[in-house]
Amino acid sequence: MISRFVALLLLPALLLLVPSQPAAAQWGAPPQPGIGSWMGDDLAGTYYNPNARAYCRVSPRRGGYLFVNENGSPAWFAYWAPGQLRMVRGEWDPNIVVTVSRDAMRRTMLRFDSPMAPTGYWVRVD
After folding, report:
1. What's the pLDDT score for residue 18?
2. CA neighbor of 67 nearest in space, from 37, 95, 100, 90
3. Pick the residue with more confidence: 2 or 25?
4. 16 lies in a domain?
5. By the 8 A CB rule, do 22 and 28 touch?
6. 6 belongs to a structural domain
7. Does some domain include residue 24?
8. Section 37-54 average pLDDT
9. pLDDT higher than threshold 70 for residue 101
């Protein structure tokens, strides 16, 4: 009986001695907008989507970019790693990752990868 009572008193004290780690250390910090731009790129401009045979727009926004697809649906993206952007809000699939690269003509090319859809591409035309 006494040993249970002592154990109940000591348990909170032991928990206070265990070092706690912040959530960011356990799960990694969330992406910070604007970090990781690639080649000093400015993604803003008009793009051609060969899959939809239509034009799309990318505009700079504080901490990231606003992407508007051929249907007029907006999505805000921010760099989360060098050469890669993730959607931070919008009407698109939240799992989309955009990879920035160059095509054979040195134009900016955006590759859209998502587990829910086939890979898509936008090529800058301006």
Report:
1. 44
2. 90
3. 2
4. no
5. no
6. no
7. no
8. 82
9. yes
